[in-house]
Amino acid sequence: xxxxxxxxxxxxxxxxxxxxxxxxxxxxxxxxxxxxxxxxxxxxxxxxxxxxxxxxxxxxxxxxxxxxxxxxxxxxxxxxxxxxxxxxxxxxxxxxxxxxxxxxxxxxxxxxxxxxxxxxxxxxxxxxxxxxxxxxxxxxxxxxxxxxxxxxxxxxxxxxxxxxxxxxxxxxxxxxxxxxxxxxxxxxxxxxxxxxxxxxxxxxxxxxxxxxxxxxxxxxxxxxxxxxxxxxxxxxxxxxxxxxxxxxxxxxxxxxxxxxxxxxxxxxxxxxxxxxxxxxxxxxxxxxxxxxxxxxxxxxxxxxxxxxxxxxxxxxxxxxxxxxxxxxxxxxxxxxxxxxxxxxxxxxxxxxxxxxxx
Amino acid sequence: xxxxxxxxxxxxxxxxxxxxxxxxxxxxxxxxxxxxxxxxxxxxxxxxxxxxxxxxxxxxxxxxxxxxxxxxxxxxxxxxxxxxxxxxxxxxxxxxxxxxxxxxxxxxxxxxxxxxxxxxxxxxxxxxxxxxxxxxxxxxxxxxxxxxxxxxxxxxxxxxxxxxxxxxxxxxxxxxxxxxxxxxxxxxxxxxxxxxxxxxxxxxxxxxxxxxxxxxxxxxxxxxxxxxxxxxxxxxxxxxxxxxxxxxxxxxxxxxxxxxxxxxxxxxxxxxxxxxxxxxxxxxxxxxxxxxxxxxxxxxxxxxxxxxxxxxxxxxxxxxxxxxxxxxxxxxxxxxxxxxxxxxxxxxxxxxxxxxxxxxxxxxxxxxxxxxxxxxxxxxxxxxxxxxxxxxxxxxxxxxxxxxxxxxxxxxxxxxxxxxxxxxxxxxxxxxxxxxxxxxxxxxxxxxxxxxxxxxxxxxxxxxxxxxxxxxxxxxxxxxxxxxxxxxxxxxxxxxxxxxxxxxxxxxxxxxxxxxxxxxxxxxxxxxxxxxxxxxxxxxxxxxxxxxxxxxxxxxxxxxxxxxxxxxxxxxxxxxxxxxxxxxxxxxxxxxxxxxxxxxxxxxxxxxxxxxxxxxxxxxxxxxxxxxxxxxxxxxxxxxxxxxxxxxxxxxxxxxxxxxxxxxxxxxxxxxxxxxxxxxxxxxxxxxxxxxxxxxxxxxxxxxxxxxxxxxxxxxxxxxxxxxxxxxxxxxxxxxxxxxxxxxxxxxxxxxxxxxxxxxxxxxxxxxxxxxxxxxxxxxxxxxxxxxxxxxxxxxxxxxxx
Lengths: 358, 802
Hints:
The complex is a heterodimer. Chain A is of the alpha+beta class. Helices cover 32% and strands 28% of the residues of chain A. Chain A folds into 2 domains: 217 residues, P-loop containing nucleotide triphosphate hydrolases (Rossmann fold, 3-Layer(aba) Sandwich); 115 residues, Jelly Rolls (Sandwich), CATH 2.60.120.10. Chain A has 12 helices and 18 strands. In chain A, the strands form 4 sheets. In chain A, strands 6-7-8-3-9-10 form a 6-stranded mixed β-sheet, with helices on both faces. In chain A, strands 2-1-4-5 form a 4-stranded antiparallel β-sheet. In chain A, strand 14 and strand 15 form a beta hairpin. The N and C termini of chain A lie far apart (51 Å). Among the domains of chain B are: 195 residues, no CATH class; 185 residues, no CATH class; 180 residues, no CATH class. Helix content of chain B is 52%, strand content 20%. In chain B, the strands form 2 sheets. In chain B, strands 2-3-8-5-7-6 form a 6-stranded mixed β-barrel. In chain B, strands 12-13-18-15-17-16 form a 6-stranded mixed barrel. In chain B, a hairpin with a 2-residue loop joins strand 16 and strand 17. Chain B is elongated, with a radius of gyration of 34 Å. At the A-B interface, helix 1, helix 2 and helix 3 of A face helix 12, helix 19, helix 20 and helix 22 of B.
């Protein structure tokens, strides 16, 4: 499937998605199951975010909250100025038709309509695009996703990748500022998945907010950032990035047992000879460590770990650490870190790097 | 799981949960079966109840086996007939014609029937309903219909105007039901019963004109009755009595039975049709159910279930549907059978023996309720149980597949560029499940076709009645008890305003003779003027009478039955008055199909034969106002005018009276058919509701997708409604086309039953328009619940992510 780089877009800037303390409970025979446990997240214009997590982690439920397909038990979902969760089912449908493009894992094209008709359908429903422009716009969108020769075919007559491309064209029909895709490549071969991601990258480059739920870590890496979910909670992105050798529940545990430390430029984090409380993960900014013996400096940026060796060996710090610029650091609880190190390949993996001088 | 469910084996627990788990679907299947079983119960029940109760009531009424019209006679003749060989009992009947004042102050004709036998023993028993059983001297017992029509009852006093215009007041002693006159009584249903002692009090001479005879043995055997009739004829002949008319009826068969049987036969055909239609509905629903259950079947097979075990499980489910429908349909069907019988009993005037269960009807219902669903479901079940585990489990997990290639219909629809996509979805969805659509259309189309046909049949029958009444198209029929000079009567009638024409008619009784000059039958001779505009005959063979005819007859179709092989040009030997002569049959006309012999000659010839000289006893008058009210007004004026001058009037009747009663009768008949048509239509609408529900159920995912891309409630609602409406409209067009042949068949069957002649089919827009309205309402109604359900679905439910 040929995918051209530039999709026709009118920029929609300035609107962000905010999720505050989202809790979602489902009633089951065995009692209430809490699928989302107070999730906070923000997505900004032009961001291409991958929502990642194991099966059952709550990714799709989280996306359902965003799309208004489902309502949170408590908490707020605000997209632009709209509190999505407060709209009625029917109003949410109208709102969605104008503001969101949704792409499903199984394409979900209507089998009785041709690809062209499927693409025109959201325009007919929302009524935003003038009737005279609908067909040419749909043809244009289908051309952009490489389907210009198949526009009059029924979905069953084209491949899965082509159906998904048509589904993307449909999602773009009303030129929405947000595109939300749930496992859009889950049913596609890797080459096709690659080109679908190419389309999303192009859309993000044009200022659209793209959220993609995916299992595939390689594809997740192509996003501008990832939101890692485990057991209904968001794992701190710095924990996930700094300690990739931990399992998701271990990362979540680390997230739970950490606290942020804000440093101003020049502010010291650790001194030589000091006994550490735990291990530091740099969230943002730059820190500089100065070795006690050589006096040599080494700068480290976001997602780097400090104090691993000193803490695990139970010895005092052998370097000075201070912020070069305003920075944020996570302090992981020592006892928990020790336990995590005992039950993972963390120790061996970190031993290979020589960048932690503490 | 409920505690009691744990006692069931898992497989049976599955059957149970399939039954109660999806109540809408269960309701749909059960309703599909129940409606057919109900219709069969209703028809089969009344099929047993009506003839049995009608014949029972007739037999128990001690009906006359032989009825003879002859010249006035007294009790001596009755005694002589009683002594005749083979006769069990005999009685004389006299009808005294008076006019009674109704509670509204109108004067209407009233026939008072007098007999010699005590009421409790008489031939043609009447069933006492209220008040006295027997009328005392100068009292009367009013017949049920008259009492009901004018809200009269025991204790009321009737003001009667006698033939000589004197007034008598007569007390109603009681009411009773005539069990033997049947529907024929409709034509003269204002009647009462008096004791023979009251005849002279009503200023009438004491004599009888109708002889009623019951045979001693073989009262159910036409041959035995004929033999006794021959003996009675001899007795009458010995005393010099001529027979004007003779009727022979066995005791065990109500005279109306053959007509009623024919109508019930039609209902039975419709019942079978309804069962067939409901069978196709069941097949539709079960196919959908099996499709939905494919993943479950796959899982059962995966854990080792064999094909026959799965078949057994689903057949048990189907039987459970059948049993549930029987629980609803048997009581409802029994009740409806009784209601329908009651309706017929009111129409034909016989009492029912009371509500009862008809075991035969229930057995038929049970057989149909269990067998038809099994038959309809066996193919979907066998096919469903035969799928491979792989395709069963993967089935239904994705959006319903559509063919890669567009069908011809879709190709056609694809060219409709002007349709919006939502409308296109409705249109294409309609044609998506073509098998299901065909079955739904079949039921709805047939229901509609029958519905429309019923209206056409009504018009066709009325049309026929109109034709038949063309033999009686005078506005007022003036009949005297003896002939009066034509110029006198004509002058007097013309003196009344609005009269357009007056025709003298010669009317007389004649006997049909065999080669030995013995009387074999009697006939009525009618002699309108040649070329009378008041008779527009339907000639089936030969020609109508002409002015220069001599001893020429145009006879009714009853001759063909009584004289097989009779053809135009043959001669019949008749005795008219005292003259015996051969008459040539010049034509055969189609009449109502009654068995009485009627023949037309022209006035001049017949009057000469009857020895009338420039006189007539019957006059037919026309006016400008042909409405019943206008005719009645004119009749009253003529009546007053002639009575004031001392004319011996037999009756003055408005011409439309008969037409109106017959039209009413046809109206009642068609009401039966409308009930059946509505029943068929209800099968159709249940079918459509089912189809739409199944369509919506199967497309929940698509509805979720539509919601996801912005479709709001009313749009989803509209999608389903348009689909329903489209099915309804297609069925309307097909039904309208199909109604043409069905009208022909139905009208012919009923016309043959009533008139012994095929119908001349006529069509009316009424049925088409009403059905269009009904089908639109049905479509919207049937789509409403599925559409509402569809619009209420949340996307989470339909897309069921996790």
